[in-house]
Amino acid sequence: MKADSFADRLKVAVTLTAGGTAHVIPPGDVKSFALTLRSFGFEGRVAFDLADNTSAGGLEKDTLKAAFLEQDLMEVQLELTAVHTDAAPQPALTSLKVKGLVSERSLVEVPGVPRPGAPLLHRRYEVTFQDAAALLWSQHFPCVLYTQKTMKDVLDAHKGTHIPLVYDWSAGLDATCPQLFLGLTPEHGASFYDFLLWYVDTRDGVLAYDYTAAKYKLSAAKAAEGTPVKLWGPDVDQVTVRFPEVPRHEVTVLNAVAEGPATRPINQQSAVTGIRHDVLLRTPITNEVDARVTLETARLKVRGKEVELGWKRFPATALVPGSLVKLPTTEAWAAAGLAGGETFRVRTLALRGDALASTPDAEHLSKNGGFEFQMATLLEPQAEKWVDLPPYLPPTWPRYVEGLIVSEMGDEPHETWQAYTDSKTSQDGYKVKIPLWANQIVTLPFNPNLLPGHFYFPAYKGERVLVGLDFQKAWLKRFLDWRDTARMPADGQGTHLLVGKTPENGTSMKHSYVDGKPVFLLQRTNAKDTARIEIKEGTLVIRVKEEPA
């Protein structure tokens, strides 16, 4: 967004909290600032001077320096208020206020005169800052498993003390999920902030920052409440109407399951024939396909026109993203292709100011200051459903961890197998406990895995397996160890098939070499009772016997 600069007097109140102490900066000592406010968060910069003339016999001492040099997390509050307005009747002056966390900072010491050895009189501080979620969650890479939890539970576990959250999205946050896995690692790039943005975007939710309450809100739709602010035409310098790119694609949901494949097209009026986005699923559950069609239909949005305003004065009633504004009804606004009195929502606001007098002594300790000021806002229709989100890196899965197969069949030492049937989907699955995360249980598909279908060898109780974890699904990647007593000596080059509950209650089939000649042994064992068939060079032995105790 672009806007011409103009001179204006503003009260720019800055409070920097460092080392647990709040340092209030006189508005006249603020030398420059910049803010970009969006519907999902903000970033900014502010520079100010602090006097420290005790070395020259003065009484002013800089109390910020010691804490500023430390590595503690710092917080900055920036509040802008107009000093006067020409609007009639005179409205009450309201302020724009943001509070963020410092990401970068700098310090320059300013002597009284530019010569070596001159006494220090001022320091110029500059800090850049962001909303807490963007700063902290961009450095947060948890790798943790949750079972039988909601997304709300997950967010509450990671918000800490600096990220207040409000929820109004039951479909996206309140459902209890069998599995939610955050496999986020710095090497793969996607942080917890990326994960949140991906989740909101792909599930058709809304992430909004409430500038009045200083809280984040996750909701199913944009807020519609609020009293529109009537714009005062003379405050606005220029108006630009923008028309965002129209999506020219349709969407097709494909289900690649062999029994009952499906192709579900989603049409939209502005699409060009043959241009589409394909969404590929592989699920035997029809309800999952229906849910994805509903979701993709909701995500396919055609955006409305946008209005960009360049200002020539900071408005008496401060605006922030989410504010509703009503356009003037004058003929000039109608000539721009806008309906007089139409209501829009502020989506983005960008402003910056540089002190007209930048020397340290200019307007020192004044209650306001003169600035070369720029301000632009981007408005969207009140009914706009498209959600603005920052660019993000989609998280990638899978991650692989070790697990132990669960079976409740038989006694504890019995190496049994068990298929658990999901009451909602009627699908069978293994249960596997994951020791790394407190033996939580995940469910894997009960299928032949890497074997062809005519081999029926389910994984047995306690078997050590490698589990692939996706966000909400898991699967058996491979088996990691031999069953007890199954391994054969290397000198006999044997192979062994061991089935049954235990080696003492099962059947063993072995093939090995003795003196270079093949030997085949089939033995059924039940405690002391054995039945044995052995075939070797020139010999066939069939024996049924009760072994001695």
Notable features of this structure?
single chain, 549 residues, 9% helix, 8-stranded antiparallel β-barrel, mainly beta, 7 helices
Give structural notes:
The protein is built from seven helices and 32 strands. With 549 residues, it is mainly beta. The chain is elongated, with a radius of gyration of 34 Å. The termini are far apart. The mean pLDDT is 93.
Write the SSE topology.
Blueprint: E1 6-18, E2 21-25, E3 30-38, E4 41-51, H1 65-68, E5 75-82, E6 95-111, E7 120-130, H2 132-136, E8 143-146, H3 151-158, E9 165-168, H4 170-173, E10 180-183, H5 192-202, E11 206-210, E12 215-219, E13 229-230, E14 236-242, E15 250-255, E16 262-266, E17 276-281, H6 286-299, E18 306-311, E19 324-326, H7 331-335, E20 343-355, E21 369-381, E22 399-406, E23 420-421, E24 428-434, E25 440-445, E26 464-469, E27 474-479, E28 495-502, E29 505-514, E30 517-526, E31 529-536, E32 539-546
Parallel strand pairs: 9-12, 13-19, 15-17
Antiparallel strand pairs: 1-2, 1-5, 1-21, 3-4, 3-20, 4-7, 5-6, 6-7, 8-10, 11-12, 14-18, 15-16, 18-21, 19-20, 20-21, 22-24, 22-26, 23-24, 24-25, 26-27, 28-29, 29-30, 30-31, 31-32
What is the helix fraction of residues, given as a range? under 10%
Shape: elongated
- The structure class reads mainly beta
Instruction: Give the integer mean of the pLDDT values.
Output: 93
Query: How many extended strands?
Result: 32
Most strands sheet: 8 strands, antiparallel, barrel
* Count of runs of 4 or more consecutive helical residues: 7
Task: Note the beta-strand portion.
Answer: 35-45%
Amino-to-carboxy terminus distance: 90 Å
Low-confidence stretches: none
Radius of gyration, in angstroms, nearest whole number: 34 Å
Strand order, biggest sheet? 1-5-6-7-4-3-20-21
